[in-house]
């Protein structure tokens, strides 16, 4: 599989001449898609996945699970996985390349740590700069060992163990990736694996493990947060999975519709897991006309349709405690804040520094380049809402899909055109994003490869 580094796709974005109306769907949830492929590969039997996100990040996971012995095929939009069983993955004959995906690299590290074989893992330049110690430190406690570059960076060799010990671990950072890596390692460890989570993070791993037939216990802790426990070794039973639309992807057309006048947009079939909906809460606090229709449960996850109309937004104070439920949405929320009336304070953003880019610095740069007054105080970002004409800047996206999409949304609402240095990385999480916005009338062109 080729990487996205091959050709950059710059784009110049001008204000949309018309509002965004109609009915759309966004691609499948990225977190659920990764997990469906991994758990299906660990299950015994055949799993069909409906609505899988066919973005580059998830395709990397599919490729890795194939390299580990699962049979994975695609017919139309349905993916079929014939699993190997827990403890039965086979040693890859080549380096596994996780591309741009932190989720793929971290979760897979957990699985590999409790399989008795050696695996070599790498990623693109962005992923190779991201910290892996947050998973290799706890996972080393189960008997596995890891050899990384300086600073705990990829490429990395994983020396897994078939005699994995169960881990008890209190998460030092709110991270669903770290929690999931430990739980996945625990599937093939002998005894009780325990993860203490002081602040709740997305629980798709726990939900999907239950869907595949195993018991995952969750206890509220007196001091707040919860303790998640499972007993290994387990055997997973293949079960079909239906993936809802990704709320993190819905954020982009949603904010576009809020900012561009005369919009009235329905985004159907969006996942509404309460540990993912912090953005919707924050936008409502800003005065967004955003309602949820047709709420239902599909594939064990709450789902609904989002109805959004253009709104006059005001500044907001987003508490740090909300960050895990909207961690990937801060760049586009900051864009909404730039067009709002008054000042916004987005608190507790330290984790943004270790995403595909330093998203805190890159979001500040995006706003400043386009005439927005913005400050960073500690881990907080303070955005001073519209104080004159906006736009006219050039945005550097640093191999980060969320920055590229946020810059495009900024340009669609701005007074002057915004230049985006590279939109190619949008393929990691939202294939077809530019086409979808164009179908709504955004007039973006398709970008040119260089
Ligand atoms: O578990 C997951 O699927 C994810 C967890 C989050 O990362 P952290 O665990 O690093 O917060 C999020 O940023 C990422 O896009 C997906
Ligand atoms: C942080 C993200 O993903 P990952 O950590 O999987 O690279 C993201 O999609 O915004």
Q: What compounds sit in this structure?
A: shikimate-3-phosphate, phosphoenolpyruvate
Largest pleated sheet: 4 strands, mixed
Number of contiguous helices: 12
| Overall outline | globular
Any idea of the CATH topology of the largest domain?
UDP-n-acetylglucosamine1-carboxyvinyl-transferase, Chain
The chain-level structural class is alpha/beta
| Range of helix content | 25-40%
Q: What number is the mean pLDDT?
A: 97
CATH superfamily of the largest domain: Enolpyruvate transferase domain
Radius of gyration from the alpha-carbon trace, in angstroms: 21 Å
Q: Which consecutive residue ranges, at least 5 long each, have pLDDT under 50?
A: none
CATH class of the largest domain: Alpha Beta
Determine the strand fraction and express it as a percent band. Answer: 25-35%
Domain Enolpyruvate transferase: 20-435
Binding site for phosphoenolpyruvate: 30, 102, 130, 177, 359, 402
Catalytic activity: 3-phosphoshikimate + phosphoenolpyruvate = 5-O-(1-carboxyvinyl)-3-phosphoshikimate + phosphate
Keywords: Amino-acid biosynthesis, Aromatic amino acid biosynthesis, Cytoplasm, Transferase
């Amino acid at each position: 599989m080729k990487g996205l580094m091959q050709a950059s796709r710059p784009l110049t974005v001008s204000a949309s001449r018309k509002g965004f109306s109609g009915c759309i769907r966004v691609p499948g949830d990225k977190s659920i898609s990764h997990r469906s492929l991994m758990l299906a590969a660990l299950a015994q039997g055949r799993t069909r996945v409906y609505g899988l996100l066919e973005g580059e990040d998830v395709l990397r996971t599919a490729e890795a699970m194939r390299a580990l012995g699962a049979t994975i095929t695609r017919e139309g939009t349905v993916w079929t996985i014939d699993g190997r069983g827990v403890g039965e993955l086979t040693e890859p004959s080549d380096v596994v390349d996780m591309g741009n995906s932190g989720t793929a690299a971290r979760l897979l590290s957990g699985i590999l740590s409790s399989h008795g074989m050696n695996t070599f893992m790498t990623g693109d330049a962005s992923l190779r700069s991201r910290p892996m110690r947050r998973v290799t430190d706890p996972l080393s406690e189960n008997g596995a060992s890891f050899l990384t570059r300086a600073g705990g960076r990829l490429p990395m060799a994983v020396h897994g163990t078939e005699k994995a010990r169960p881990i008890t671990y209190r998460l030092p950072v709110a991270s669903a990736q770290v929690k999931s890596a430990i739980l996945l390692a625990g599937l093939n460890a002998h005894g009780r694996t325990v993860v203490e989570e002081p602040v709740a993070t997305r629980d798709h791993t726990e939900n999907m493990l239950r869907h595949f037939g195993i018991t995952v216990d969750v206890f509220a802790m007196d001091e707040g947060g919860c303790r998640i426990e499972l007993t290994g070794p387990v055997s997973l039973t293949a079960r079909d999975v239906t993936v809802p639309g990704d709320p993190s992807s819905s954020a982009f057309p949603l904010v576009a519709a809020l900012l561009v006048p005369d919009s009235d947009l329905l985004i159907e079939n969006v996942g509404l897991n309460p540990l993912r909906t912090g953005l919707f809460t924050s936008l409502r606090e800003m005065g967004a006309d955003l309602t949820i229709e047709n709420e239902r449960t599909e594939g064990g996850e709450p789902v609904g349709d989002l109805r959004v109309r253009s709104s006059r937004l005001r500044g907001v104070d987003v508490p740090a405690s909300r960050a895990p439920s909207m961690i990937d949405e801060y760049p586009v929320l900051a864009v909404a804040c730039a067009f709002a009336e008054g000042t916004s304070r987005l608190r507790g953003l330290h984790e943004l520094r270790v995403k595909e880019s330093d998203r805190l610095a890159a979001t500040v740069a995006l706003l400043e380049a386009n005439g927005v007054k913005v400050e960073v105080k500690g881990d907080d970002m303070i955005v001073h809402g519209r104080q004159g004409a906006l736009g006219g800047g050039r945005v550097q996206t640093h191999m980060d899909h969320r920055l590229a999409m946020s810059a495009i949304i900024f340009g669609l609402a701005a007074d002057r055109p915004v230049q985006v240095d590279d939109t190619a990385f949008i393929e990691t999480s939202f294939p077809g994003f530019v086409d979808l916005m164009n179908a709504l009338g955004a007039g973006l062109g398709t970008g040119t490869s260089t």
